[in-house]
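Thread title: Can someone regenerate the structure for this chain?

I was given the following input by a collaborator and told the matching structure tokens would be attached. They weren't. Posting the sequence so someone can regenerate them.
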Amino acid sequence: MSLVYDNLRLHVTNDAFYIEALNAGSEDVLVIDRINFEIELISNREDIPPSLAESRAIHAIFGVVNLVGGPHLIVVTGRSRVGDIAGHTIWKVTETEVLPYRKSLLNLNEAQTSDNETYLALLNNALSFKDYYFSTSFDITHSMQRLALADAGFLLEPLSTRADHRFFWNRHALHDFLDRPELSKFTVPFMHGFISITSCFVLGRTFDLILVSRRSTLRAGTRYFVRGLDKQGDAANFVETEQAVVYARHICSLVQTRGSIPLLWSQRPNLRYKPLPKLVEDRALHLASFKSHFDSQIITYGKQMVLNLVNHKGVELTLAQAFLDAVNETNSKDIGYDAFDFHGQCGANHWDRLSILIDRIELDQEQFGYFMQNRDGTVFMKQTGVFRTNCMDCLDRTNVVQSLIARVSLTKQLKQLGIFKPNSTIEQEAELDYTLKQIWADNADFCSRQYAGTGALKTDYTRTGKRTKFGLLKDGYNSAVRYLKNNFSDGFRQDSMDLLLGNFCVSESTSSPFPSSEQRRRPVLLFLIYLIFSVFIIVALLPATGFLEQLTYVIIWALATLIVTSYALRHGVDFVNKPNLVHVKEKFE
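Best answer:
Regenerated them for you:
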């Protein structure tokens, strides 16, 4: 049964948007007035203008976002079917459309019109990520265990009312709808992250293997502009990942979390390949945010086993030591800590040493267990704690370790369900082994693109179980692309997310937060001057015949290159693409 209308038609007139529910037995029409912005629910299709209306099928309403030019309606016009979870269809958004309420921007001056175009570009960029998922009959923002343990009243609430606000990416866009229960059949929560649903056939049994990564809206952002915690204890790049098995109405699942090193720190891009991280010096502020973060995690997930995979040398060691100090000072029986120098242990292609960590946490994994629900709905087992894994980015190293933990749990679950024999292993089932590796590698790529702008590193190991030369080359390429995007486009991407999530709200009276054209031109002018100078040197060098003359030109060019490079690095923050809306500077800096 659909809890939200899944068959809609949009009619656009000069005065209103009419969104018609075409589900059997429904006469509901949602009317959004384009003049006074009021939203009304009617039950009479006769009120839709028959001939003047522009009409097309849509799949869902994402919401409404206000720009300088007024409100803009966002609708989903394309979707692809991911698969079914317990009989409920899961969809991925493939296309959206942004429709302005106002037909004209003549009321705006030139500066306002320019700002409105910039905001609209930001909004379209945020919607272009393509990693939004929804279901009209199943709550994908909650884990299987949370849904199973919820009381009956909670499950009777509309999807948009009971959705986990941490993973409800269009919550701000639906703010005009959520306070009105009568509109609930037109409002569906969208999750951002990754979902894979694969049917597996193993030893004569068929089951669905599901992987869901839910990306948090709290402290969401890009790699270098959002690091660590904020004062409320929300962690950058926090992702809840659930691996589930659905077999003959039995359900098993394991939840893991990842999140940035839970301290107050930053690492602003400055044209250097690896900017130095900066820790806030106020220790009391650190501990307050640290405690707030883990108090929330413990309430939500139970005991925490922290796996810190950063290097035990260099700048990463400073963060690792501060992390360990915070754990020791908090002295909570619900927080365990294990530091594993991933690069130090697995360098020179010694990836087999990951077994050291997996063996070390075996007892914790046994104690935490996993969720299991029988075919009649009875909860047979509960997961009582989670592994919270992090490296510097919570992407590459983190995903490798999480995939190994999930593999151990899946083996136990398949034995519990009677699919595996007591001595069976995943490695013995080539097709299952391949499938598991691929979905975790895909998960790595999706999470990495959303935070760092490229696919993940080290996915050759996740996909094949070993490091390859091609994988190393691909990592080099992705690292170079990450550098370019993190320095020259992530400010725009950060603003896109802040606008979509409502971290920054726009009205006609909002003063322009964007830099002047003169400020934007400064880095470009320096580059052009250097380019013109280089061309001049090349032109002068070509007709030069004597060795000393050629050497002189080369030395002049080399000195100019050195001076320009030195200047750019000293003033690197002036050259990077910075956000303008919210994360211009951390509030705790």
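DSSP finds 17 helices and 20 strands in the chain.
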